[in-house]
Design brief:
The complex is a heterodimer of chains A (about 260) and B (about 260). With about 260 residues, chain A is α+β, with helices and mostly antiparallel strands. In chain A, α1 packs antiparallel against α2. Chain B is α+β, with helices and mostly antiparallel strands. In chain B, α1 runs antiparallel to α2. Chain B is elongated, with a radius of gyration of 27 Å. Classes of the chains: A alpha+beta (about 260), B alpha+beta (about 260).
Amino acid sequence: MENALLVGLSRLVALERQFDVVANNIANLNTTGFKSSSSIFQEFLGSGAQENAFAPNDAGVRFVLDRASLLDLRQGPVQQTGNPLDIAIDGDAFIAVQTAAGERYTRSGALKINSAGVIVTADGTPVAGDNGPITLQAADRNISISTDGRISVVEGATGSVDTQRGKLKLVSFAQPQQLTSEGANLFAAPAGVTPQAAGANVRVIQGATEGSNVNGVLEMSRMIEINRTYSMIAGLLQTQNDLHNTSIDKLAEVPS
Amino acid sequence: MNALQTAATGMAAQDLHVQVISNNIANMATTGYKRQRAEFSDLLYEHLRRIGTQSSDQGNILPVGIDLGSGVKPVGTPRIMTQGSLSQTGNAFDLAITGEGFFKILMPDGTFSYTRDGSFQMDGTGRLVTAQGYVVQPGITVPPNSTAFTVNAQGQVSVMPVGSTTPTVLGQLTVTRFINQAGLLSIGDNLLQETPASGTPQDGLPATNGAGNIQQASLEQSNVDSVTEISDLIAAQRAYEMNSKVITAADQMLSAVAALQR
């Protein structure tokens, strides 16, 4: 009897989750290398809540269930910063970093040097090179990062160019959708998703970072849509509630 | 509803962003100032349906899951250590470094700090000091009645004593480099201090081992680019507004729920 209420409730819960996703996108409008998410819903058939034994079947009770939040891996805007350690990646690749928990992947190329000369991300995680972390020497200057991620410097002592400082490990995935967001701009690869060396069409752009790919207008309109739908469903529940109240009142009236 | 908190982290982050931008703009004309940049990262995710878990006994694997993010956090405001443009001042005590490195300054408490601001002065005893009166290291004392204070590109300081025709070398300025310049701590007065993140200071001669040259009678301008700052400011303000709209919407949704109970 309460199906209308429960269906409405399932929609409200799904909308709240969707709204959380939208809110997270908007909160990360200016986060370097952030990839926006969207929600996918599916119909969920309430089995047993209908009777099909008679000629006109009951209408099925269909709840709504949020099935997934889908990563939108489109390229974000490339913003020039002029900082030699800022890199943006043009193409479907990620920068591999070496966290304590294993290899993670990021699109945020605001790199730093730590006190030991190792190239790290903004929160101090070493960036993975093809042969372990990339370490610069104290007197190195004029850091230059080639489009395939090779790091070369002018050595302070000799003034000669050293191209062997290391190469950024750029990886791509056959199924990038399956990456899990871990926070701190990092993605983790679940079991079965293996990184491959990035293809030749991937370019590293030095002196720029990739902005967030959140589309503010889209998220705002999505938010309005959620807001309105939510109010509408809430109104529906209200109507249903009123209906109950009325029926209880009417049925309880004892005819004189 | 998480969205309320999520949007609140967004507003707090953009608030900090505007603060950093406003400090950059306020220091547009500060000698040797290096612009800061606010950097953000996303917060933890709640994995409601975890990617890669089995959806059936046949070993089917969920290809996508539900990851609900919880907002944004600022991770750092590193200084962008690009070269600022040089402006000619004509003042012999104005020095600028072209390239990497910092002037080393002796603080009143005996520690050292570092600066790119080379607008030095001479104090009552003839020592080369900063605008705050702190002594530039290694100490240079200009004898009275000398003229033609000269600093060459390699940092050698010389003057012409009165009545002499050959210059006297007074000393040698050093330039200090750090492996991680962005790891220096700003203490105001255009001064920076060594931290565990910056690495140890390496004093060296100008124009050697990767250190920059010294340019006399010039000052390094701040490297703040007004166009970048203003466009960042617009982006930050819009992001702030959008986050506030999320809070409004969340509020409306909650009030719709509250209205259910009459």
